[in-house]
Amino acid sequence: MARNIRSRAGPGRLAAEVSTFINRRREIAEVRRLLSTARLVTLTGAGGTGKTRLAVRVARELRRAFADGVWQVDLAGIGDGSLLEYAVADALGLRGAPDVPTSRLLIDYLSDRSVLLVLDNCEHLVDDCARLVNALLRAASGVRALCTSRQPLGVIGETVFTVTPLSVPEPGVALATGAAVTYAALALFAERAGAAVPGFTLHAGNLKTVVEICERLDGLPLAIELAAAQLRTRSIEQLAAGLADRFRLLATRHAIPGHHRRLQETFDWSFTTCTVPERKLWARVAVFRGSFDLHAVTTVCASDDLPVEAVVDSLAGLVDKSIAIREEVAGQNRYRLLDTVREYGLGQLGDTDGMPALLRRRHRDWYLHLAERFEAEWFGPDQQRWLTRLRLEQDNVRAAIGWCLTTPGESRAGLRLVADLQYYWLVGGALREGADWLDRALAANSAATPERARALHTYCRILVSSQGDAAQAPERAQEFLALSRRLDEPSLVARAFHVLCLTAQLDNDMARAQQMAEEAVVRFAALGEMDATVVSAQIALARTVLSQGDRARAARICAECYAVCAAHGEQWGRSQALGESALVALDGGDVAQATGYANERLRIKSALGDTLGIATTLEILAGIAVAAEAYERAALLLGAADRVRQQLGQRTFASPWLRSWRKEYVAAAVGALGEAGFDDALRRGTELSHDDALAYALGAAGDRTRRTRSAKPAAEAGPAAPLTRRERQVAELIAEGLSNKQIASRLVISQRTAESHVENILTKLGFTSRTQVASWVTKHPPS
Length: 783
Ligand SMILES: Nc1ncnc2c1ncn2[C@@H]1O[C@H](COP(=O)(O)OP(=O)(O)O)[C@@H](O)[C@H]1O
Ligand SMILES: [Mg+2]
Hints:
By secondary structure, the protein is mainly alpha-helical. 62% of the residues lie in helices and 6% in strands. The protein is built from 37 helices and 9 strands. A hairpin with a 2-residue loop joins β8 (324-329) and β9. It is globular. The structure holds adenosine-5'-diphosphate (ADP) and magnesium ion. Residues 51-52, 120-121, 148, 339 line the site of magnesium ion.
């Protein structure tokens, strides 16, 4: 999730704290103590009491106690219990393959790990959370769970800790200014008031009024924040008077129903302090889930009575009033609402004029539009940016799909949405989720439409991209072909032949696979089409051609694909072509060239976050290492691949053809190293961190792999793709020891251009340093 960051102190993911925390030392100590004996602790209390903040604090302090990290899963963004397991898997960085149920993936992964799971905001999914936590705690003895929820989960063995609001002085207690901040409520008010009005401090002149305000708000942190934000536009006396008008002092402090009521009253009051446009917007933005951007808000929420400029102003107003939260993610402003604030907004939306349905349709339209653009632009230079974008929008995309599938008359749009996200499911690491959505979408609407055909296409590609539901894939592929023919959609028919090539490969029928691929490629050529799927079909053809012994043709096809992708500024197709090129080169015994291709592929896969692609590349590199008789390196790389595969819940290549290749080279490595030696190196490979594994694979073996002296660093393996004339010049200047700036002035080009030449040279040669380039230049005099 967007605001989550990786902590430096080890593995794990906790929300970054965007505002100061008022210490709750006693509570933190108590929850830590409970977690030392209980395996499930649930923090309960009314909305806005500070459960989430407390949980994050406790988790942060416990990081060292859990070797495999503390991981926060924010459930406020998901509206549907069926998404719970994905949310947990996402948080842990696990990418499910379609043939592995997510619950299995979670259990397998967690079973021998020491992890604290923080399930945050469980209240709307209490039963699902209870079931999942129960299952995980049973299966994984090193796992503990810290949940926050307005109600307990009701699981046996659950320890409940009730979070009370912040401390407020008893009425009438005489207070010195210095002692005031020992009351957490006053300290919080002072902090937030200082953020609203720079320079604000507690002093003898305002202390009594602040105490009165905090008392009226019953110490509820969220209510205090909303009140303090009002100081932008009113004096503290006006604020106190306004609250006194509206609120009776609650008779029973610390009674939960009272806090709930108090929060509602605070919202009611905040609502009245909003301008009319702000009120409208508060209600309307509540259709969003998780975080969202300004463009989405203006598109979805604007109307005749709330024009775009008013939306922009009102959103700023809601941020000023602490109703919406602004955060910067990947250099861009995004917005979110706390769960309680969002619920209040939805309540205000009412049911007038079909507004809720209208907003949800517009919300869906916006994300459908996004998915369409993604699909249209995927075969281009922005792949990385697009994947990042869609990951940020995940909660909203899910909500939009879910709405389509549960609202009468919208299932056809649902099919479009899930079909257009094809490359997000395939490359963005969401295979399992994609498979589930497609399953549901196809079941929801069986009419013979182009939407259904396109969804079948996406579904088939997911099914064959891993070991898939092998039984289902051929049947679905046939259905896809038949429907495309019936609809008379030649482009889809060509796509169906591509998919049939892939299912034939799963059957290990490479001759048939080749026929299907030829058919697809010829049809695409006749149509004049070029996109990521066309490239995939060509690469599939290269694979089958190679398997049938025609290495030269396979090499030619790969080179063409690479060139086309490069011309489009495209990365993913290029990485696919490089994988095949590596196999082709290896088939011809050219270890150095194979290494260069595989290294370049690995860099791209890792930049895109294509987990499955990283795993397969490590296995290709292992095969290359065996060919180079670097057996220990091969075993290490296989270990590293295993570790990545564990995140997918999947063992090895989907293709039987590659599986049998792998089997051969593993046997060779075991033969050379002996069982024990092989296992030892394999284990060391699994222990490499993600970054170390990549660095090792790329030839820059770090300290942790020093023992693998026999492993030949890939970078020394020699030339990969030839350099252009200009790159050769730049490489020679690098060898002379010139900096980028000096190279730029020597060649009379800009420094940017020089940098980009250097970058290309490193990539092409599979190197990580200039020294390697220098040594390459001396070993390869110009021809
Ligand atoms: N100890 C604290 N220090 C500072 N701010 C707090 C504290 N506890 C809660 N808040 C603020 O109050 C609001 C509600 O807190 P949150 O933890 O989201 O409540 P809950 O999870 O119980 O609904 C948030 O804006 C949060 O930042
Ligand atoms: Mg919360």
